[in-house]
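Onboarding guide, step 5: your first structure request.
Type a short instruction followed by the sequence, for example:

Predict the 3D structure of this protein.
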Amino acid sequence: MVKQIAKMDKKKELITCRDILWLLVLFGFAINYMLRLNLNLTIVAMVIPYPKPAAIAQCNVEMSTVDVWINETSWDENVSIPITTPSFTNVTYADRFAWNEYEQGLTLGAYYWLHWMSQLPGGLLARRYGTKLVFGLANLLTALLGFLIPYVTHLYMLIALRVIQGLIAGVVWPSMHDMTAKWIPQNERSKFVSAYLGSSVGAAVTYPLCAAVSNSFGWGASFHVTSLLGIIWFCFWHLLVYDSPQQHPRISEKEKNYILDNITGSVEDEEKARIPWRSIILSRPVWVTIIAHWGMAWGFFTLMTQAPTYFNFIHGWNINAIKLLFQTGLLAGAPHLLRMVFSYLFSMMSDWLLRTRRMSLMNVRKLATFVCTGIQGILIVALGFSGCHPLLAVIFMMAGTAVNGAVSASTLAIFVDLSPNYASVLLGFAGMIIIWAGFISPAIVGALTNNNQTVGQWRLVFLIAAANSIASCVIYMIFGTSKEQPWNQYTKLNTKVREMQELVPAAAVKRNNDAEDDTEKSNFIKER
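The system replies with structure tokens like these:
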């Protein structure tokens, strides 16, 4: 009988509560990105298409020039690739909107207008109300608002809806760090944080899913399907996830004790603890980590948001072929999937290095930062110098995106290392700063390449991104640390100070009472 019970315990431990949490966090971030990106593809089917001349690719022009020179024929500087413009005569689009490119740009960008404002509040709300509520409700409310998009007929109503979605969803990333600090021991943290890159899985799935649904049932169905997936996820999240091991009713004693014995730096009644804002803002390790995160993010934004434009204008990829590849998910999904796979494998290696003590925590974090910033920067430089070789450009773009996945063992985990008690606050504070890289990077690209789509100008774009990545890598290699900061125990330190202050008056009163007793005794002796 005892043996049977032991076997049952072992079977239960095959899938731990941490494993279930990892899966639900993975799918939670995937849902978050599906609800964020579904409009990016579906808007193609929402607006009335109109004839537009294709871009003249520089590399194609140069190749045409070479062919003309070889055939010893005269060459005109206006030689370009033949353009076939589709005809839309006698075609009606009753369910589409007559939005121009500027209006489409407003719609796509509206999600991010207030997204940055809820980063820090997301961390604070998670500390007060718990990640289960904040993370779960953020995805649920964003999904419910997504149901309304097909019924919004006015441009500015849609923009307002997307602004609200972005504001609500901004709490997602920082809120999860509070749960990570409470559930995940240090030597498992890299692997668990790789679940955050479920965002890459969501991005990879969104394009083929929305394309297939839109083609079969109309563009409105794509919003219904992604929102429905969000609601289904929320049901599992609500039933299976708890804010801490102590609150989980189905966790085994073995797993709970293991977690509690291996989590350091936590305090009781954390929700009531004051936040050491001054120590956080003046902390050099925090700012060095933010700098590393900035360089990583700038490179990633450049690779993922500017790649289609680069390949269109420089390598002359047929725009219809690009749309087809995006719809099937081959071009859009591959970099994201590579990033997720690399993140998972690299994080497992990082945790193994910690468990076996082959590397210290600080060296593991520096190795991961070197990969996701330094190596990423080198690959971006290679992309900039790939010239008119599209195969090399694709390889360097894919590789640069993949190595970015090491961020799960790098800066994302470092914020928890520095302060488990205030990890959500740190990531929220960093998020308010890092998100500006997503605004500044496209602005620089526009300034450099506007009416000047050349290999040289795009090389400058990539060199600027690489400079950000490599400089942040060097700074973290020299000044970075992952040691727990003294202010992480802010509440305990304050409690000790208060206890000392309470003891001092008590001791003083006792000394005064003793002195009075001695005086009375001496007076009594004198009188006698």
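Each response can be followed by summary notes, for example: Residues 304 and 502 are 58 Å apart (CA to CA).
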